[in-house]
Amino acid sequence: MYSVNYHRAASVADAAKLVKAGDAKLLSGGMTLIPAMKTRLAAPSDLVDLSKIKELQGVKVSGKTVTIGAATTHFDVANDEKLKKACPALVHLASLIGDPAVRHRGTIGGSIANNDPAADYPAALLALGATIVTNKRQIAADKFFMGLFETSLKEGEIVTAVTFTAPAKAAYEKFRNPASRYAIVGVFVAKGKDGVSVAVTGAGDDGVFRSKEIEAALAKNFAASALEGVKVPAKNLMTDIHASADYRANLIAVMAKRAVAAANA
Amino acid sequence: MSDVSLIVNGKRVSGAAEDRTLLVHFLRENLGLTGTHVGCDTSQCGACVVHVDGKAVKSCSMLAVQASGSTVVTIEGLANGADLHPVQAAFREHHGLQCGFCTPGMIMTATDMINRHPEGLDEATVRTELEGNICRCTGYHNIVKAILAASKTMSKGSKGKARQAA
């Protein structure tokens, strides 16, 4: 790892000031950034640690409105009793990220700001129609995730929370890489007052996306059987040593079927 | 450089370290606690697992300065003098190790797992929870057996030996 200057931010305002220094990067759980720095894929001059900021932590559920602080760890999301009632699908998703030690450190804000094409949370936030709150503004999820490792965050802008309305039904199904356990395909299905939405991670050439074909079939009938014969086009899907685009296209339909069955269970 | 102050295995320690120093290197090189191992160095294998503020974390993926102000427990902090911690005793009893390289991380992960499941553990849960720890010798069977046995011992109220911080 190259030399770096560490700063621990006491508040979001403090972090916003500190991040202006040199080529600074925001650090949350560090489960991606620290490994990237170790391999010298990332070499920030300064790190601004957000993980000790109180105002960024915790899950709030008020009626149907769920708000999760950006520095809330996957472990805390996976074990939040109020969230288990309001949106068990998101609790399940968080419990599938990495391994227990990674879940103790990694955070929801860090995950979405990094927008890894195989990250789990982007699928959930896109399907739930969530809003990403920053220290400057509020951004709808479909305007936030912009491609591989890209978001609409501006230089130095800090994600402070995500918020969404709890769906009537939802589920997440993940087909995992057998060794590293990330999503080769992950499908989050949500049924709310605005209809059905289905978001796919791990598969898109351009990161997380919504599957129009599956949404159209489920809009008519929210049942796994409605997806019989539905073909997801392989165009714009990733091919790598683990799975071809055609295989991923098939997996999207299979994971969607399982997710709908789980959401209806 | 930053001053890193920690409570490690119950003792207050501090030292200057470059900001880029990983927690595992601070423990091993500055404090001489070489029980915590560096295996893959890519946060996959879990040989470096320690407890920071009561939670199992991979110390190769955290800066020492990030942990400053925290309470850390390493493998050296589990036994009570000559009395092995119940998880260590179970690993010995059930032959839960061969070469022993992954063992410190396995035991720290197991201890955290057992603490988080006071209701008890089943085999499927143990195997799922071991996702972040790799062993290249045992085939895991005896590790799983040891953790299940330790979980039983610890829930039977022999908690006097299992220190709270662990």
From TrEMBL, chain A:
<dbReference type="InterPro" id="IPR002346">
    <property type="entry name" value="Mopterin_DH_FAD-bd"/>
</dbReference>
<keyword id="KW-0285">Flavoprotein</keyword>
<keyword id="KW-0560">Oxidoreductase</keyword>
<protein>
    <submittedName>
        <fullName>Carbon-monoxide dehydrogenase medium subunit</fullName>
        <ecNumber>1.2.7.4</ecNumber>
    </submittedName>
</protein>
<dbReference type="InterPro" id="IPR036683">
    <property type="entry name" value="CO_DH_flav_C_dom_sf"/>
</dbReference>
<dbReference type="InterPro" id="IPR016169">
    <property type="entry name" value="FAD-bd_PCMH_sub2"/>
</dbReference>
<dbReference type="GO" id="GO:0071949">
    <property type="term" value="F:FAD binding"/>
</dbReference>
<feature type="domain" description="FAD-binding PCMH-type">
    <location>
        <begin position="1"/>
        <end position="169"/>
    </location>
</feature>
<keyword id="KW-0274">FAD</keyword>
<dbReference type="Pfam" id="PF00941">
    <property type="entry name" value="FAD_binding_5"/>
</dbReference>
<dbReference type="GO" id="GO:0043885">
    <property type="term" value="F:anaerobic carbon-monoxide dehydrogenase activity"/>
</dbReference>
<dbReference type="InterPro" id="IPR051312">
    <property type="entry name" value="Diverse_Substr_Oxidored"/>
</dbReference>
<dbReference type="InterPro" id="IPR036318">
    <property type="entry name" value="FAD-bd_PCMH-like_sf"/>
</dbReference>
<dbReference type="InterPro" id="IPR005107">
    <property type="entry name" value="CO_DH_flav_C"/>
</dbReference>
<dbReference type="InterPro" id="IPR016167">
    <property type="entry name" value="FAD-bd_PCMH_sub1"/>
</dbReference>
<dbReference type="InterPro" id="IPR016166">
    <property type="entry name" value="FAD-bd_PCMH"/>
</dbReference>
TrEMBL record, chain B:
<dbReference type="GO" id="GO:0046872">
    <property type="term" value="F:metal ion binding"/>
</dbReference>
<dbReference type="Pfam" id="PF00111">
    <property type="entry name" value="Fer2"/>
</dbReference>
<keyword id="KW-0408">Iron</keyword>
<dbReference type="InterPro" id="IPR036884">
    <property type="entry name" value="2Fe-2S-bd_dom_sf"/>
</dbReference>
<protein>
    <submittedName>
        <fullName>Carbon-monoxide dehydrogenase small subunit</fullName>
        <ecNumber>1.2.7.4</ecNumber>
    </submittedName>
</protein>
<dbReference type="InterPro" id="IPR001041">
    <property type="entry name" value="2Fe-2S_ferredoxin-type"/>
</dbReference>
<keyword id="KW-0479">Metal-binding</keyword>
<dbReference type="InterPro" id="IPR002888">
    <property type="entry name" value="2Fe-2S-bd"/>
</dbReference>
<dbReference type="Pfam" id="PF01799">
    <property type="entry name" value="Fer2_2"/>
</dbReference>
<dbReference type="InterPro" id="IPR012675">
    <property type="entry name" value="Beta-grasp_dom_sf"/>
</dbReference>
<feature type="domain" description="2Fe-2S ferredoxin-type">
    <location>
        <begin position="2"/>
        <end position="78"/>
    </location>
</feature>
<keyword id="KW-0001">2Fe-2S</keyword>
<keyword id="KW-0411">Iron-sulfur</keyword>
<keyword id="KW-0560">Oxidoreductase</keyword>
<dbReference type="InterPro" id="IPR051452">
    <property type="entry name" value="Diverse_Oxidoreductases"/>
</dbReference>
<dbReference type="GO" id="GO:0043885">
    <property type="term" value="F:anaerobic carbon-monoxide dehydrogenase activity"/>
</dbReference>
<dbReference type="GO" id="GO:0051537">
    <property type="term" value="F:2 iron, 2 sulfur cluster binding"/>
</dbReference>
<dbReference type="InterPro" id="IPR036010">
    <property type="entry name" value="2Fe-2S_ferredoxin-like_sf"/>
</dbReference>
